[in-house]
């Protein structure tokens, strides 16, 4: 969790309508109500943003953002576009964020994804920032942009490009060379962002986040960004309005505790990190990143499916979006629960008289206690290590006001002649709600579970909450023509409630797994969305709407007792899908670099004596660090010619990697062994794993070296070394990677080193796709490679063969035939034995989707195969696996299969991601 805020005294001292332009770095701001004597009053929030061509004012006071004079409680969900290398699917996830209650998307940009070399920048294809910003605007979401230069986010080097490690610049506010490169990066980003600012009406970029490494750089960075034409507010550590961020909530209860804690502090800028997890594909991840899927705690997982953490975020997001009272809260008089194990924060909105109560139970047991709310001691239960949010005094329309309730409000909106309010709780709870009613109500129980009684001008409603069931109560009275509808839902049922704002009015939809969009067209509401199973469809709509269509098809419907349009027949679910078996495999052994006669004349000579790294060069050794020779990602090969190696008895190789590092060594083509770094003892605390592999030469090899001295003069022996996983730490990106030193026993040979890593960056897939394996350098992972001469083999059978140290490639092709109206996320599962000396690099249509590392526990992870890269419409897919196996490990990956990770009838149209089939092919580039 991150939280930037002033002390309460300093915070409260700021004037209510003071626009904090200086704190925001000179944001485009003006008092929303010129001449007003006090704070901007609570009122309806601004509507969904769009690129409407109109100028907009963005300001803030000590309570919230002010957009065109209206208070906005920001509920942002963080999404990293670079973790989803399929631009069509950006729309899918953005639509889901909006449906699940977010009004903004928080975006980090990885400099290293866009820049393969100094001065070279690419914003095309899967790196098309302009396309992403346009899509966010079309989905009705504000954008909070965080371009770095450093972003952290478990990305290699925190997002800094690999080539920066080999420059003289060491980072920091006073480092001229670093600042020169960083300025160029920001200038390139800002040229795009400036065209998509909400203030100009040309996009929905609302806020720009700055996280300078040193405070001394803040002023300079601010001036740099303003000079580039960025005029939206700037957020940074000194911004008085707090940025409340929750990361890594392990379950729904923890998500509630942390987000409610921010709400209790009056925070109105909220960020869910991560709302979408995505993948750590290619050589993107830092040592700290989980693989292959990033952030298993995310509300939407890498396969774009909802997770158990989603329900409280969905509920709170819609509460902040549809109940404006929560955009301005002040600390109110202390309130205590009867049981001290329940901590209580009491807040109030001075404009509306609404009160909020945040209850937290950090104990290991459920606690039932009483809490004074609305003048009554109300019995409440807070589960163990959980939290609850209650409210009193909310105006719910038709002159009725919430006296108190032991369930959380989720939304309150007017639709046609209805005032609809939804309350949520846990399945199995007894919901109790009390309304202050100025006139005698006429309640109608629409579902059998509800009960009610009216006494002392108060309507008491009781509803037992059942699993995935919505209970409805209708309330009318003689003095108003407006009808109140009370909805009660548990977590599961709340995830199928979808409020939506159209230019012609609001609607509320119940039933499907997702509502993507709604358009009022004459007398018809046209809905688009997703279903998984057969689902009811119910919609509360403005007056005059009498028909429904779903995904372009008319739905037979009629009005029900809840005054909603209801489909006569359930919406269809997703049809059964059958995935093909993966067969037709071909195999080829690799690593010719290990053979003594291999021609390495084109390799880089490694003979430097000084390094750009922060790691000292070992005494008496040349610089062997990969970055100093321009190899920043993936595997690195070394070949050393040893002159005077007769009598050599052992070789010690020191190396430095990221997590799961591995070293293999050969001498004159004979395997010396495999070494891996693991355990806390090997990690320096900064994301660098170090190891020293000591290999004693086999007797036959020692004899051969002695014989060579007598028979061939002093012909050099060849030491070949492969170092894997050269990822850079987030906070120590200049720490060396690759081989560090070689030491010998029994002889003191002279060594002439050469090094080879990744070839030129893939012009379509980007600089993070390829490493330095022979097969990568020669296109064995690409769909266009001719593998007709490879050996036919079964990966499962190969896993039972004799062990072999080295690299073995496997390739196959397969076809899917998924109906166009179905969204089917697919994963790849490797069911082989969890050998810790086996690494498998997965390539789909030439895209490096990550590394499988043995040695884990539990079921093997599924590699998400993003649709777009994965061809699902009767087109061929090429799957390639590069298997690195130690000397005690068979050279096969074991059984390999496709797994359906979900499925929905609906989805978004997906365009194929360019996947050229030969090295250097530019593919299709987007301008």
In short:
By secondary structure, this protein is mainly beta.
Q: Report the end-to-end length measured between terminal Cα atoms.
A: 38 Å
With strands numbered from the N-terminus, the spatial order across the biggest sheet is: 1-10-11-5-6-7-8-9
Strand content: 25-35%
User: Structural class, please?
Assistant: mainly beta
Mean pLDDT: 91
The value of Rg in angstroms is 31 Å
Number of strands: 55
How many H/I helical runs? 12
Major sheet details = 8 strands, mixed
Helical residues, percent: 10-25%
Shape assignment: elongated
Low-pLDDT sequence parts: 1-36, 921-927
Report on the structure:
This protein is mostly beta strands and about 950 residues long. It is about 10% helix and about 35% strand. It contains twelve helices and 55 strands. β5 (about 75-80), α2 (about 85-100) and β6 form a beta-alpha-beta unit. α7 runs parallel beside α8 (about 310-320). Mean pLDDT is about 90; it is low at about 1-35 and about 920-925.
List the helices and strands and how they pair.
Blueprint: E1 2-4, H1 8-13, E2 58-60, E3 65-67, E4 70-72, E5 74-78, H2 87-99, E6 104-108, H3 111-114, H4 129-138, E7 142-146, H5 176-193, E8 205-209, H6 218-227, E9 234-235, E10 243-247, H7 252-264, E11 269-273, H8 310-322, E12 330-331, E13 342-348, E14 355-361, E15 367-373, E16 376-382, E17 386-392, E18 401-405, E19 408-415, E20 418-424, E21 430-436, E22 441-445, E23 451-455, E24 458-464, E25 470-477, E26 480-489, H9 491-494, E27 497-502, E28 505-510, E29 514-521, E30 524-530, E31 538-540, E32 547-550, E33 553-555, E34 557-559, E35 565-567, E36 586-589, E37 604-605, E38 636-643, E39 650-657, E40 662-667, E41 670-676, E42 689-696, H10 699-711, E43 717-724, E44 738-745, E45 750-756, H11 774-777, E46 791-792, H12 795-798, E47 806-817, E48 822-823, E49 826-830, E50 838-844, E51 847-853, E52 862-865, E53 873-885, E54 896-900, E55 904-905
Parallel strand pairs: 5-6, 5-11, 6-7, 7-8, 8-9, 10-11, 20-26, 30-32
Antiparallel strand pairs: 1-10, 2-3, 3-4, 12-13, 13-14, 14-17, 15-16, 18-21, 19-20, 21-24, 22-25, 23-24, 25-26, 27-28, 28-31, 29-30, 31-35, 32-33, 34-35, 36-46, 36-47, 37-45, 38-43, 38-45, 39-42, 39-44, 40-41, 40-43, 47-53, 48-55, 49-52, 49-54, 50-51, 50-53
Helix pairs in contact: 2-4, 7-8
